[in-house]
Design goal:
The chain is mainly beta. The protein is built from one helix and 14 strands.
């Protein structure tokens, strides 16, 4: 049975207390939604996302969770058939395990592992969304850098890159792709150029 809830944090309910209540909750599939305006949980930066994204609730869907109160690490666990998922507006990251690292005020990084782990976000309303997949995804929210390793691919519009590893700087719109340790080369497909008269 899937559980769904909406939580609005205010001065009386701290992030730690919220996550502690999540950890103590049942191990069945959970869904939580956090209302916008919660400064502790803005996943997407205004530099690298639609402005509407940061105004949307943050939703977590997972089977079980565990939080380390000393380090501030929160692990969300799913399964191959129902991965753990975090969404906020167009931002979406999923995997069998998602680890969130935060300080007292913000989420700094999101790490996802899966078969595969996935990432999706509309960065600019005028551009196609970014879709990416790999065995391991590491997203640094502070820098806007997305690292994907292991059978990795990234698609935006008609452009597709397949590589063992790549780094995508969302803010600078740059991609670095690397061949595998076994020597498998990077593969890139670009859409045809259509010239207008």
């Amino acid at each position: 049975m899937t559980k769904t809830g909406t939580v609005k944090l205010n001065n009386k309910l701290t992030l730690t207390a919220f996550f502690l209540s999540v950890v103590l909750a049942t191990s069945k599939k959970l869904k939580f939604s956090m209302q916008a305006g919660t400064p502790l949980l803005l996943i997407s930066t205004t530099l690298s996302a639609l402005p509407e994204d940061v105004e949307q609730p943050i939703e977590f869907s997972y089977d079980t969770s565990e939080m380390n109160m000393n380090s501030g690490l929160l692990a969300l666990n799913g399964s191959p058939s129902e991965p753990a998922v975090i969404t906020q507006g167009t931002f979406r990251i999923s995997g069998i395990e998602i680890i969130i690292e935060r300080n007292s005020e913000n989420i700094n990084t999101i790490e996802s592992q899966g078969l595969p782990a996935t990432f999706y976000q509309v960065i600019d309303a005028e551009q196609p969304p970014i879709e990416a997949s790999g065995k391991h995804i590491f997203y640094n929210r502070l820098t806007g850098v997305l690292d994907i390793t292991g059978d990795a691919w990234l698609v935006q519009g008609g452009t597709r890159i397949e590589a063992y590893h790549f780094t995508y700087d969302i803010n600078k719109r740059t991609v670095r792709a690397d061949r595998s340790p076994e020597g498998d080369q990077v593969r890139m497909v670009l859409p045809p150029t259509i010239e207008s008269d």
